[in-house]
Design a protein that fits this description.
The chain has 91 residues and is α+β, with helices and mostly antiparallel strands. The protein has two domains: 56 residues, no CATH class; 34 residues, no CATH class. Helix content is 16%, strand content 36%. The strands form three sheets. It has a three-stranded mixed beta sheet, with no helix packed on it. A two-stranded antiparallel sheet has the order 1-3. A two-stranded antiparallel sheet has the order 6-7. Strand 4 and strand 5 form a beta hairpin. The longest helix has 8 residues. The model has no long low-confidence stretch (mean pLDDT 87).
Length: 91
């Protein structure tokens, strides 16, 4: 299925390679990560590298339905009509 990937990293190995100072949250390994699931990221906080987990993907609030929706794929043919891209495209 489109938009999926695997994550089979060892936390100890990643921490050593990237000199991680601390781990806030760590998403478990998975062979089938889909948009909306937790993934691991490395970021800086006060000059320290930290492992944390975040929701993977891009979500937006549909102004017509008031429902949070995820974007997995986009088509160039509809970029000028889709609510998410229309304003940016026209600029």
């Amino acid at each position: 299925m489109c938009g999926r990937f695997i994550n089979i990293n060892e936390q100890k190995k990643i921490s050593k390679i990237f000199a991680i100072s601390r781990t806030e949250n760590y998403a478990e390994n998975s062979y089938n990560i889909a948009p909306g699931q937790k993934i691991n990221i490395i970021h800086y906080d006060s000059e320290q590298r930290i492992i944390d987990s975040v929701n993977w993907g891009y979500s937006y609030l549909n102004s017509q339905t008031n429902i949070l929706q995820s974007v997995i794929n986009s088509r160039i043919e509809t970029i000028n009509t889709k609510l998410l891209f229309k304003d940016s495209y026209l600029k």
